[in-house]
Amino acid sequence: MAAEKGKDEEFVGSGTDGSKKLSVRDFISGRIFTHEEVVTQLPFVFFLTILAFIYISNHFSMEKLLKEAASLNKDIQELRIEAITTSSDLMYFSKQSVILDKVRESGVDLEELTEPPRRIILKK
């Protein structure tokens, strides 16, 4: 009888009679969360869920930053084009021939110098 008792103690924790297999019905009814094996893994599942939320949040924030960077680059390019255009216009309008034409059109009685300017020296 002692030999039989030893055999029984040997198979007590083997899981053949105490644990049930998980079925589709357990998933549908929600009884899966009451099984001991699943309950012991819940902290890890929650940890993975939190990591997934952090990953998704990080992805959305990076997309937002990339859109903002693209918008700023477009603005910089437009401002650079505007600066080049303004500089070109300034160079054109500051040419002597353009200034002379504008003075003649306005009717101001000015003449172009034909000889170079001279320095006037006063003696004291």
Protein structure class: mainly alpha
Relative helix content = 55-70%
Number of strands: 0
- Biggest β-sheet: count, sense, barrel? none
What would you report as the Rg, rounded to the nearest angstrom? Answer: 45 Å
Distance between the termini: 143 Å
Would you identify the regions where 5 or more consecutive residues have pLDDT less than 50?
Answer: 11-18
Helix and strand sequence: HHHH
Number of helices: 4
Averaging pLDDT over every residue, what do you get?
A: 84
Strand content: under 5%
The outline comes out as rod-shaped
Kindly describe this structure.
By secondary structure, the protein is mainly α. The protein is 68% helix and 0% strand. The chain has a domain at 22-104. The protein has helices spanning 2-10, 24-29, 36-93, 96-106.
Short description:
Helix content is 68%, strand content 0%. The chain has 124 residues and is mainly alpha-helical. The termini are far apart.
Q: How do the strands and helices of this protein lay out in sequence?
A:
Blueprint: H1 2-10, H2 24-29, H3 36-93, H4 96-106
Question: Any descriptors?
Answer:
124 residues, mainly alpha, 0% strand, rod-shaped
